[in-house]
């Protein structure tokens, strides 16, 4: 048979993908972030079980390798998670801290609301920013009425802290 019509192992089907990089920062998470990681682990385990249930023809496939790699990442993040719960009394804190929701106004008076969360929980389009992001670093430890400088690629933006709380 012509070699062009035979399938040889060429390494294109992964047996195990390299692990995803793990942040060097402490893995602080909110209680919601921990729950999200736990739910993601359960979903990945179910996906792996489903893919393996398709028999030998799924062994070594990209979807399975990706799911296994992602599960290793989530398990590592769960193992290193440091849960930072909001204060029991939910009283407004005197300064911006991990887990806090902050309302700010820029130089033009446009307001925005951000919540400082862990890296795996961050969703900037939803106002959830990683504690290690430039914006969060600018806001952390600021109090109501403080003006902070947020370094952006387009220049420095001044933000006034209008309100701090634990809204989540």
Describe the structure.
The chain has 168 residues and is an alpha/beta fold. It folds into two domains: 21-83; 101-165, Chitinase A, domain 3 (Roll), CATH 3.10.50.30. 27% of the residues lie in helices and 23% in strands. The protein is built from three helices and seven strands; from the N terminus they run βααββββαββ. Strand 6 and strand 7 form a beta hairpin. Helix 1 runs antiparallel to helix 2 (62-79). The chain starts with 26 loop residues before the first strand and ends with a strand. The model is unreliable at 3-11 (pLDDT under 50).
Provide a short characterization of the protein structure.
This protein is an alpha/beta fold and about 170 residues long. The protein has helices at about 30-50, 60-80, 135-140, and strands spanning about 25-30, 80-85, 100-105, 110-115, 130, 145-150, 155-165.
Alpha-carbon distance between the two ends: 65 Å
- Helices, by number, come to 3
CATH topology of the largest domain: Chitinase A, domain 3
CATH evolutionary superfamily of the largest domain: Transcription elongation factor, GreA/GreB, C-terminal domain
Stretches where pLDDT is under 50 for at least 5 consecutive residues are 3-11
Shape: elongated
Number of strands: 7
The neighbouring-strand order within the major sheet is: 5-4-3-7-6
- Give helix % range: 25-40%
What's the CATH class label of the largest domain? Alpha Beta
Number of domains: 2
Beta-strand residue percentage: 15-25%
Tell me the series of helices and strands, N- to C-terminal.
Answer: EHHEEEEHEE
Q: Label the CATH architecture of the largest domain.
A: Roll
Based on CA atoms alone, the radius of gyration comes out at 22 Å
The structural class is alpha/beta
InterPro entries: GreA/GreB_C_sf, TF_GreA/GreB_CS, Tscrpt_elong_fac_GreA/B_C, Tscrpt_elong_fac_GreA/B_fam
Organism: Roseovarius halotolerans
Keywords: Elongation factor, Protein biosynthesis
Protein name: Transcription elongation factor GreA
